[in-house]
Amino acid sequence: MELLSFFNVIINTSLPKTLLKEVPIWEIIKQSNSGIGWVINLLLLLLFGYSVFIFVERILTIRAAKKEANKLSKEVKKLLLNNEIEKALALCKSSDTPMAKMLEELVRNTTEVKAD
């Protein structure tokens, strides 16, 4: 019961105004550009631009690799369905991607199992 009355007192009382005031972000940036602050801000801006560049480049690289992997897996599947195992292995060896290496090992392992 005491805890409930404590919360009622806190909720129903008005808090005093503090000495803090709201400052727009642009005002903070202007004030930080005095002295050596502009060098730090410029460095932060350059690093931000570089990180955005790396992020976009990685996204584009991953998308391209995904398209190539899908194309390769479809071609290998078609060759395996036609029972052209050597051509499928040669196709996997000609492509220098992680997906090609995995498919090559998969084809090798399945043909070794069938041979046994």
Distance between the termini: 79 Å
Based on CA atoms alone, the radius of gyration comes out at 32 Å
What's the β-strand tally?
0
Portion of residues in beta strands equals under 5%
Order of helices and strands: HHHHH
Summarize the structure in words:
It is a single chain. With 116 residues, the protein is mainly α. It has one domain. The chain contains five helices and no strands. The protein has helices spanning 2-12, 25-32, 37-81, 85-94, 98-115. It is elongated and about 85 Å long. The model has no long low-confidence stretch (mean pLDDT 84).
What is the secondary structure topology, with strand pairs?
Blueprint lengths: L1 H11 L12 H8 L4 H45 L3 H10 L3 H18 L1
Helix pairs in contact: 3-4, 4-5
In summary, what is this structure?
This protein is an all-alpha fold. The chain is built from 5 helices and no strands.
Keywords:
116 residues, mainly alpha, 5 helices, 79% helix, elongated
